[in-house]
Amino acid sequence: MKKRKKRKKIKKNKICKIYIFRHGQTFYNRGGYEKDKRFTGFKDSGLTPLGIRQAKIVAKKLKNKHIDVAFFTRLSRSKNTLKEVLKYHPECNILIKNDKMIERSYGKLEGFKHKTIIKKYGEKKYLLWHRSYNVRPPGGESIKMVEKRVSSFIKSLLKFIKKNKVNVALSAHGNSMRPFRRYFEKFSIKKMMKLEIPYDNYFEYSIRC
């Protein structure tokens, strides 16, 4: 009787996770009335007391997840939100700064209230600079430009995850999360531009690694 050949066990690929969240509310973007807010961009506006509470909410929601590596930007709102999250994750001992996922630059508009810009340049110009996909404000970035650098970040991030087989957390910004969500959730540009990114929740994506 011939011996049966043993079948080789097919190793299933591991599923790695990406957890991405927005920093909590800052002093520049607080207030219920949109036009009272300021263009923040690269300005380093700190978290408000509410922003800290929102960061703690995200932290509790991620409490039972496993995080190996965490990414943040140079801005304190990104770092301090991540700080709250990592209080529950002693297993995460690799922190990486990467400004490709930093907030959109608003150039010469940064620091000014929205209503000040409207008064100076008009509602039409304000909306064009603030809400359009491919028009950049003076000295700043368009969302199209932000998407280009975020796409570059995603490409390198996926390589990193697959090579190291790790779960990652990203402490990001509203306008960098728009193209990130578009990539993973297959949104159109139109839908991406209408996204409202919450301060107190996270988005989870699975990667076969």
Brief sketch in words of this structure:
With 209 residues, this protein is of the alpha/beta class.
List keywords for this structure.
209 residues; alpha/beta; Rossmann fold; 5-stranded mixed beta sheet; 7 helices; 38% helix; globular; disordered N terminus
Question: Would you list the SSEs in sequence order as H and E?
Answer: EHEHEHHHEHHE
Structural class, from helix and strand content?
alpha/beta
Shape: globular
CATH topology of the domain at 15-26 and 48-105 and 141-208: Rossmann fold
Number of H/I helices: 7
Low-confidence stretches: 1-11
Average of pLDDT:
93
**N-to-C CA distance:** 41 Å
Radius of gyration: 20 Å
Helix proportion of residues, in percent?
Answer: 25-40%
Report on the biggest sheet: 5 strands, mixed
Number of strands: 5
The CATH homologous superfamily of the domain at 15-26 and 48-105 and 141-208 is termed Phosphoglycerate mutase-like
Strand order of the largest sheet: 3-2-4-1-5
CATH uppermost class of the domain at 15-26 and 48-105 and 141-208: Alpha Beta
- Per CATH, the architecture of the domain at 15-26 and 48-105 and 141-208 is 3-Layer(aba) Sandwich
Structure description:
The protein contains 7 helices and 5 strands. It is globular and about 60 Å long. The protein is an alpha/beta fold. It has a 5-stranded mixed sheet. Helix 1 crosses helix 2 (76-85). It has a domain at 15-26 and 48-105 and 141-208: Phosphoglycerate mutase-like (Rossmann fold). The longest helix has 22 residues, at 143-164.
